Amino acid sequence: MRIQTLSPEQVLAGLRSGGHGLTTREAARRLGRFGANTLKAPRREPMAVRLLRSFTHFFALLLWLAAALAAVAEIRQPGEGMGLLAIAVVAVILVNGLFSFAQDYRAERELAALAKLLPQRVKTWRDGQVSEVEAAALVPGDVIVLTAGDRVPADARLLSATGVRLDASTLTGESVPVLRTADPCTEHEAPMAGNLVFAGTSVVAGEGTALVYATGNHTEFGRIANLTQGEQRERWPLLGEIAALSRLIAVLAVGLGAVFFAIGVHAGQPVMAAFVFAIGIIVANVPEGLLPTVTLALAMAARRMARRNVLVRHLPAVEALGSATVICTDKTGTLTLNRMTVRATDGEPGAIAAVERHCHTLARSKTGWLGDPMEVALVEHAGPGPVHARTGEVPFDTERRRLSTLHRAPTGPVVYTKGAAETVLPLCTARATAAGVVPLDDTGRAAVLAAQDAMADRGLRVLALAWRDDPDPADPERGLVLAGLVGLEDPPRPEVPDAVAKARAAGIRVVMVTGDHPHTALAIAREIGLVRGSDPELVTGDALRTMTDSHLMLVLDGDEVVFARVGADQKLRIVQALQRRGETVAVTGDGVNDAPALKQGDIGVAMGRCGTDVAREAADMILLDDNFASIVHAVEEGRAVFANIRRFMTYIFTSNIPEIVPFLAFILLGIPLPLTVVQILAVDLGTDLLPALALGAEPPHPGVMIRPPRPRRERLLTWGLLARAYLFLGPFEAAAAMGAFFVVLGDGGWRWGDHLAAGDPLHRLATTACLAGIVVAQVANLLLCRADRESILDRSMPRNPLIGWAIIAELLIIAAIVYTPPGNLLFATAPLPWWAWLTPLPAVMAMVVVEEARKALARSLPCVKPSALRAPTL
Question: pTM to 2 decimals?
Answer without folding.
Answer: 0.70
